[in-house]
Amino acid sequence: MGEILLPLLILSPLAASLVVFVSAGRLSACAVGTLACTGVGMSAVISVILSVMLLSGPATGTLQVMLWPWIHIAGFSADIAFMLDRISVVMILVVTIVGLLIHIYAVSYMHDDPGIARFFGSMTLFIASMLVLVLASDLLCLFIGWEGVGLCSYLLIGFWYDTPANTAAARKAFYMTRMGDAALLCGLLLLATAAGSLHIGTVLAAVANGQVALSAVNMAALFILIGALAKSAQIPFQTWLPDAMAGPTPTSALIHAATMVTAGVYLIARLHDLFVMAVPVMALMAVLGALTLLMGACTALVQSDLKRILAWSTISQLGYMFLALGCGAWQAALFHLMTHAFFKALLFLTAGAVIVRTHHEQDIFRLGGLRHAMPGLAAAFITGASALAGVPLVTAGFYSKEMILSGVWAAHFRLTHEWTLSGHVLWGIGLLGAFLSALYIFRCVFIVFFGKSGTTATGRTSRLMTIPLSCLCVLSLCGGIIEMPMTFPPLHLFSALLDPTLPPSHADEPGWLVLVGAIVPLAGLGVAWVLWGRPSPIMREIPGQAAVIRFARTGGGMDVVYDHLFVQPFRFLTWLTRHDILDHAITGTGRLTQAVSTSVLRSRTGFLDILTLGGRRGIRSADHLLGQIHNGRVRWYAAWIVGGLCAGLAMAVLA
Amino acid sequence: MPAFPFNDTVLLATVLFSVGLTGVLVRRNMVFMLMSLDIMLNAAALVFVGAGARWHDAVGQVMFLLILALAAVETAVGLAIILRLHAQGRPTLDADTGNLLQG
């Protein structure tokens, strides 16, 4: 049963995507949407069935399916093989269920776009690739999915390709993630040479046995970390994600918030046995995650574009996940991945609905007072914002953030014998990030939905959009109750689910940690209310002139740094190769030869004239005949070549 | 015993080659002609790989890599020519229209 269902899980969106692509332009928009939703819906149903099957089995049970061997040579082998265990169960449920909700929303959102078939084809292909990535039990097979989601991301960011800025954003995302992919491939090759296989179980067993040298483990972990950082838009690769908002909003919700960018987190959690051995890499991961979450939150605080605020907040929340991973709190990272998928998809989809109803106005300062015009959307956005901020007890974000913070508090890194890095500093950064999260998202809420009204809203939000939004609202509110903090009633379904696969990371935490974690988001909310929310707010607009604001608004000037570090030297290199000395020398020699040959030609002209005059008549008649053959049509030439070849072959064979 | 007999490989390569050749001769669209050329190159490469498997020699696969690079270069040059023609003000992909030399 499971052996059939597992390939079918991937096959159904893949088949839907193929049919949609092939039938582009022949099916109506409604039919295309229905087809795509059916494909993803089927895989959602299958994933629920599979997870029930897996969870009713023994605690450490996995479902392995090997489809066919891929490469078998001496010293290395790779298969197309899939495995369902408790980590991938969480991921397939998130991917298919959130994916299905976003697909349903997109049917209505994209219904009058001429490229709807291309859109849904790419979206369902993305779901299929993501499932390959999540389920693969062989790292090379996982790499197929990894590249597939990158491709779909590129296709969908540049979906409206007639605007040059959109294609530039798509190319940027493609190049940035490609750098990480190259690093990831290096890591995989290192592991393959060391372990002789890329099967995840074999690799992890080889690492655990000490079969792989510690330096190789560190290098491989570092390379894989770089790949994950690029995919998840962490420092120093963060600049591609805000530009990726050029794509349609459902794409931003599905790929650039809920699923694809979390692939890095998933990969590291999947290979946690490898990373546990590489302590410096873990410390680097935690520090980079902490820096990213602070930087993303600060940048989100000064943005004025609604979708860009959400993009920077995604970067910041991914920073939390990397911080948790770096501290070894694997369950917390995956739990936050799940709740983040819910509330960030909700925020993006609500933002998309708001933008559609206000005639594609994305500047939050031109929106305003929208809670009267669209109370339902306002409620949905506030729900998502509360979950993102982690308003205590009622939202999912609170529980996952709390789990991360308690994991970080307990962590400590023994880098050398004398020098250890305590998790308390990182915990402080995480807490500051939680404050900033509440501040920036409620700044957005107060400016967009409260205050005096800006643009007028028209139309109604269609039923197909409101149903996914309400489902995501429920998930964002209740999705966190399955895992309570340690000091609360003993309800730990999520860690109970993952504990057989991941090393348990429960540590006794002081009760005041939970209290602080609960107060800080409320403080952020209060400060946001004072600054932007009251009837006479202190700040309507942040002064744009201050240098620090302009610096932060562009994301810390990383684009400029990249421009000077990589783009300009590359331009200089191409300039050099275009104007090189060798070329000048060759040109000079050519000129010299030309002059010499002209003089020689002149001296010979007299002699040649006599010679050619005689031959000319005879040649002209033959020339005419040959001229008929040389009609300049390349296909005729090809036909002559083939004819000659056939004749030559015939002679060779018959002689 | 190879999984796929050498005779079948050669037969498959012949069929592929014929398909590509027919494509080059019959299609007038330059992009399709390029694609057909690639099919022909791949047919040749397939023979190399098959022969390499038949005689247990890695040289066949090396030749395949060379042909792969060759095909990539050929496609790049062909596409560049098409783009140049387009930039020169000849917005057509019909190969038969480009038969007059104009300096």
From TrEMBL, chain A:
InterPro entries from the UniProt entry: NADHpl_OxRdtase_5_subgr, ND/Mrp_TM, NU5C-like, Proton_antipo_N
> Pfam families, alphabetically?
Proton_antipo_M, Proton_antipo_N
Pinpoint the NADH:quinone oxidoreductase/Mrp antiporter transmembrane domain residues: 136-413
According to the UniProt entry, where is the signal peptide?
A: none
Task: Using the record's annotation, list all stretches that form the NADH-Ubiquinone oxidoreductase (complex I) chain 5 N-terminal domain.
Answer: 70-120
Instruction: Kindly give the Gene3D superfamilies that the UniProt entry links to this protein.
Output: 1.20.5.2700
Give the location in the cell. Endomembrane system; Membrane
This protein's record includes keyword Membrane: yes
> Where does the chain cross the membrane?
32-55, 90-107, 119-137, 143-161, 182-206, 212-230, 251-269, 275-302, 309-331, 337-356, 377-399, 425-450, 462-482, 512-532, 636-654
Membrane topology is:
Multi-pass membrane protein
Major place of residence? membrane
* Full protein name: NADH-quinone oxidoreductase subunit L
Q: What is the lineage of its organism?
A: Bacteria, Pseudomonadati, Pseudomonadota, Alphaproteobacteria, Acetobacterales
From TrEMBL, chain B:
User: InterPro entries in the record, alphabetically?
Assistant: NADH_UbQ_OxRdtase_chain4L/K, NUOK/Mnh_C1-like
Family named by the database record: Belongs to the complex I subunit 4L family.
Entry keyword annotation includes Mitochondrion: no
The protein's Enzyme Commission number:
7.1.1.-
> Where does the UniProt annotation locate this protein?
Cell membrane; Membrane
Q: Which NCBIfam families match?
A: PRK05715.1-1, PRK05715.1-2
On subunit structure and binding partners, the annotation says: NDH-1 is composed of 14 different subunits. Subunits NuoA, H, J, K, L, M, N constitute the membrane sector of the complex.
> How is this protein positioned relative to the membrane?
Multi-pass membrane protein
Q: Name one Pfam family in it.
A: Oxidored_q2
> Which residues fall in a coiled-coil region?
none
Identify the species of origin.
Acetobacter conturbans
Q: GO MF terms on file?
A: oxidoreductase activity
Domain of life here? Bacteria
Function in brief: NDH-1 shuttles electrons from NADH, via FMN and iron-sulfur (Fe-S) centers, to quinones in the respiratory chain. The immediate electron acceptor for the enzyme in this species is believed to be ubiquinone. Couples the redox reaction to proton translocation (for every two electrons transferred, four hydrogen ions are translocated across the cytoplasmic membrane), and thus conserves the redox energy in a proton gradient.
Its transmembrane ranges are 6-27, 39-56, 62-83
Name this protein carries in UniProt: NADH-quinone oxidoreductase subunit K
Sorted alphabetically, the keyword list is: Cell membrane, Membrane, NAD, Oxidoreductase, Quinone, Translocase, Transmembrane, Transmembrane helix, Transport, Ubiquinone
